Amino acid sequence: ATRDAYWRTRAASGGIEAAKPSLALAARPVEDNRVRVEVGTLAPDFALPDQEGRTHRLSDYRGRWVVLYFYPKDDTPGCTKEACGFRDQMGSLKALDAVVLGVSADDVESHKRFAEKYGLNFPLLADPERKVIGAYGAWGKKNLYGKEVEGVLRQTFLIDPEGRIARVWRKVSPEGHALEVAEALKALRGA
Questions:
Q1: Which own/partner contact pairs does 110-116 have at CB distance under 8 Å and 24+ positions apart?
Q2: Model pLDDT, residue 102
Q3: Computed from CA positions of residues 11, 131, 134, 118, in that sequence, does the dihedral angle turn out positive or negative?
Q4: Helix (H/G/I), strand (E/B), else coil: 41
Q5: How far apart are the C-alpha atoms of 79 and 167, rounded to whole Å?
Q6: Total Cβ atoms within 10 A of residue 30
Q7: Pick from 134, 137, 130, 180: which is nearest to 158 by CA?
Q8: Among 79, 124, 125, 152, the one annotated catalytic
Q9: d(CA 98, CA 159)
């Protein structure tokens, strides 16, 4: 309650935007004006629709581990490999009391087609305005077929039950990544 009062006071005085208290706590700017979410910081909260149109908030998952992964585009080779990896690891992740949330700039309909085509058993969150993608610093320059472009960066954040960042993967290889995340979560839990 004290923290909330602090942020309301700061917002009223024009010190920060009222809608972004968790972002102000959790992130710091980096050289290229992207935000950098670090291990130990409070994860920025969000509200995004999934492939069924249901809204998911990070705060809804307090008390559970969250695997929040950002990926460039539905139904592309690397993104499909990564998503199917999480689908296939879902049993071990659920046994560790973790939920998986995938995020891209694709819309709800695109997510629905992608999830149905590959039998994905976790929410894909639509962020076409890239607000959450930006809040986590998952938008930036990358190399695509030898050409530098801006887009969604393939990154994963493991968020602990208190809502803090426990682990970050900034450069993800889709092959075997879900297993890598499950093993890291097992180690963090001491399981």
A1: 110/74, 110/75, 111/50, 111/51, 111/74, 112/51, 112/52, 113/74, 113/75, 114/51, 114/74, 114/75, 114/80, 114/83, 115/51
A2: 97
A3: positive
A4: coil
A5: 21
A6: 11
A7: 180
A8: 79
A9: 9
Locate 89 and state its tokens: 């690891």
User: 175-182: long-range contacts at Cβ-Cβ below 8 A with a sequence spacing of 24 or more?
Assistant: 175/81, 175/85, 176/85, 177/69, 177/82, 177/85, 178/82, 178/85, 178/86, 178/88, 178/89, 178/93, 179/85, 179/89, 181/67, 181/69, 181/86, 181/89, 181/93, 181/156, 182/89, 182/92, 182/93, 182/96
pLDDT at 148: 86
Q: Note the pTM of the prediction, 2 decimals.
A: 0.80
Angle made by CA atoms 64, 159, 186, in degrees to the nearest 5? 75
Mind listing the pLDDT tens digit for each residue in 29-71? 334 445 578 899 999 999 999 999 999 999 999 999 999 999 9
Respond yes or no: is residue 79 known to be catalytic: yes
Mean pLDDT for the chain overall: 84
Alpha-carbon span 12 to 74, nearest angstrom: 40
CA distance 169 to 69: 9
